[in-house]
Each structure stands twice: as C-alpha cells, then as structure tokens.
Predict the structure of FAD-binding domain-containing protein.
Amino acid sequence: MSSPKQIAIVGGGPGGLSLARLLQLGDKTHRYDVKVYERDLNSEARIEGGSLDLHVGSGQVFIDRAELRSAYEAVARVDGGYYAMYTQELERVWHMAVPQHPEMDRYDLRTMLLDSLKPNTVEWNHHLLKIDVVGDKYALWFKHNQESPVYCDALIGADGAFSKIRAHIAPAMAKPTYSGVTLIQGELLHPDTQCPKMLSRLHRGNMFTLGSRGRHFGLQQKTDGSIIYYASFKVPEHFMEEKYGIHSNEQVDQAVFRLAMLDIFEGFDPEILDVIKATDRLVVRKATGLMYRSTLEDRWTNFGERKLPLATLIGDAAHVIPSFAGQGVNNAMMDAVELAEELLKDQDCAMAFSAYEQRMLERCTRAAQMTEVFEDAFHDEKDNIATTTKMFAKVGPVKLDDRWKNLLD
Ligand SMILES: Cc1cc2nc3c(=O)[nH]c(=O)nc-3n(C[C@H](O)[C@H](O)[C@H](O)COP(=O)(O)OP(=O)(O)OC[C@H]3O[C@@H](n4cnc5c(N)ncnc54)[C@H](O)[C@@H]3O)c2cc1C
C-alpha cells in the first residue's frame, strides 16, 4: 500500500485550506505531513469577490466536520440571507429572508480557516510554475526560487479555475469554456454616500433586478458596508473586447467601462444607472465552466492517460462552475470533506483519489445542472421574472408583492 508522507496542497483558497484542516484534525496517527503552497504574499492579501453563503447540505457539513461551528457563527451574517427581486423599473416583485443562508465574507472565511491550522502549514508567496516527476516524488518549482524545488509524495491541486496542476494531470481537460454569459463585477466602497437609497433596498443582504433581453443586475452588501454587484447578460465570448475595447485581466479605463455599462443597461431605472455612474471599480468576469452543460464526466474520464498518478484536483481546479447557483465554494468544501474521508481510510492513496473523484463527479454533475437552471432563468429573454421567481420559491418563502401575487399560480 503506497502511503505518501508529504502531501502538498497548491492553493490556499477555501478548498485547499478546508482540506488541510480536515486532514490535520482527522490524522490521529500522524500519517501525513500537510503543506499548503499559496501564491498570495501573506494572509492579509485582498481577496476579490462578494460574500458567500455556505449551504446546509455542503459548506456547513464541512463546518461541522471541521469543528468550526462557533467560529463560523461568530462571523456569518444572518441578515445577509435577505433577498429581493425587482423589475428593471425597480418595482419590487418579491422578497424573502432565508436565515439558514447567512453570508460570510471571503476574507473572514480565509481567516477562520487559517486560524484552525497548525502553525506554518501555509507557505505564502509560493507561486507554482511547474511540476517535474522525480522518481516517486513530485518536484514543485515556485516563482520566488527557481534554483531548487520543493518535493512531495502526493499532490492536490486546489489552485482555482485556471489551475496549472490540472494541465499537468490531464492536458486534454486544461481549459474552462465560456458559458455564454458575461459577468461584470462592480464595487462601491462608500454606498452610504454614493447610493443611500439603493443601500436601503438591500437590507444588508441581496437584491437583484431582471430586465429585458435577459439582463440581470444583482447587488449585495458586504460585512464592511461596501456594495458589490454582478451584472450579467448573454453575449458572445469576446463582446466586451470587440464592442467596447474592454479586456478581462487588464487595467481598464474605468470611465470608459462605466459608459459601456450605461449603454448595456440602457432602459433600467435611473437609480440603477446612478449606481453604475458611482461605481469605484469594474472588472470583467466571464462565466466559465470546466465541465459545463453536462460535460463534467466526459471531461474527467475521456482525457486519456493520466500524467501524474498520485495527484488530484479539488474545488474550481476540478470543476469550475459559473456562480449563478452559489455552488462553487460549497462544492470546494464538500470536495475537502470527501477527499479527507478517503485519505483517512486504511487504503492506498491512488485508490483514495479514485474513490474521491467518483464521488466528486456525481455531486458536481448535479451542481452544474442546477447552475444551468439558475443561469437560464436569470437570462431568459422571454419571461425571466416568472421563471426566476418559481426557482427561488423552491429555495425559501418568497413573499410576493400585491401586483405579482398570482405569479406562482
Ligand atoms: C464572480 C464570481 C462570483 C462567485 N460567487 C459565488 C457565490 O456566491 N457562492 C459560491 O459558492 N461561489 C461563488 N463563486 C465561486 C467561488 O468563488 C469558487 O468556487 C471558490 O472560491 C473555489 O474555491 P477554490 O479554493 O477551489 O479556488 P479559489 O478560491 O480560486 O482559490 C485558489 C487559490 O489558489 C491560489 N493559486 C492559484 N494559482 C496558484 C499557483 N500557480 N500557485 C500557488 N497558488 C495558486 C490562488 O491565489 C487562490 O488563493 C463565485 C465566483 C466568481 C468568479
């Protein structure tokens, strides 16, 4: 039975840190020496993105297995579970409170996970560049030291949607594909002065507006009081570049970007357009899926010979799914739960990886399918209001406003 001692987890996002926590907690015989290699300079690095809600059947399963319930409850915001849906003219259709879906900021989540690990588990400023196979070990080469690598016996890629390790394990499944929806992320740092009326609509939670031509504009308040919004619409992959000269991953003139957004959301209520005008920072985030529209299993099983036998992937590295149903972080944490369970059994490491991958594929295929339903409803060009309302009615007790009270009949 091969029993690796040194396990390297590359990527200190929710997936990688959750796995490290569970392995350290459950490994009573000190079988493993777990290290996490993260490219961020230190634990204070800013983490982009809105807050996250850990679902009862997945993210919160991790919380309990990791014995972090009280730390989680100390930072999770119950008022973050408020949702309201509006038309593009800002007429409210329904609202609801789902207290079992509290929101947690990404930074708070990382801090909670880091605090749960043994000292020096995470090696910061370790940006993986490449991997070599040396005998029965892997040599990991990092950017800051290209003279000598770090060695490990088994490797777990938790390095996110654009994983380097994925390409090493299986070159044929290296690239996520565009889902058909472009997502723009906007931030307002001082909404109390920039858009106080909109702020009051959020009730410290979430609101979204659905408009004609399948356009969606959703806002969320974070713990520090700032607002993050995601605006999304169905367009060809290179629409933002071709129509407005706006490229992903590049410094973009923010004034030009705001004008582009005003053009895209033309016809929305002036209060939404004022939010766009007041936005501090806009970024393009195209919705991508590695295994999208039911191709998940195909991508994992049909990629030919596996190049690194004692390596596997978790989180977005394994199965990036667009964010429309809030599945990403929850499945990253369930990956950690299931992989830790398999690694802590008395079985060969390759068998543990294979058993985990089977479980992960089944679960994430369901998550990808659910995401497709949400994505289609939000961007439905004919009847996004009715389809989205019906979908949310399955999530919680939607309270329809008077004019819409027959919407669910
Ligand atoms: C716009 C948007 C909105 C989202 N909203 C939600 C939501 O509401 N709910 C939800 O559940 N999910 C949401 N997600 C998805 C969620 O963010 C991810 O699914 C989740 O963060 C995945 O966790 P992870 O640990 O697998 O990857 P990541 O969070 O991406 O972490 C990967 C880590 O690896 C590090 N890394 C990357 N490359 C290297 C390298 N070469 N060497 C060393 N380190 C490396 C990165 O710095 C990072 O810390 C959203 C995603 C996007 C883009």
Q: What stands out?
A: The longest strand covers residues 177-188.
